[in-house]
């Protein structure tokens, strides 16, 4: 499903974040040490190759809500933007921190003249953030920032399964058609 926000095409798809060949930057739902892990972080590190972990060494650790950028190495993209989402129930206030993940990632993309970026559903896996709440925060953040993002033309949410896709579509319909 697609939406237009200002000059930005917002796409919601089901798929694999490591297979977004037409996107300049993919976002890694990283851990604080920026190392290979499970979920999105594991998939991105495996696809990018060992050079990614080496590139991350001098950038770690990061705090929840922060974002850093590296080359993408063996991924089909130019960049990986790494952000650390909140652990639900532990890192407070969760919505503010999650919003900063998206804001800081988008600001890094804009600063690096990136025209297209793909996000996973940050913090919804092992960090336990409820998907519906995460979808609301992420879609609202993109909507709020759209007028500031002059060079970004495509923002894509790549959701792992159909349920997550439906949840993000539902939130996008509520937020973007008001």
Automatic annotation (TrEMBL):
InterPro entries referenced in this protein's UniProt entry, alphabetically: Macro_dom, Macro_dom-like
Domain of life: Bacteria
Residue ranges of domain Macro in the record: 1-176
PROSITE patterns xref list: MACRO
Family matches, as Gene3D superfamilies: Leucine Aminopeptidase, subunit E, domain 1
Listed Pfam families: Macro
Protein name: O-acetyl-ADP-ribose deacetylase (Regulator of RNase III), contains Macro domain
Native source species: Halanaerobium kushneri
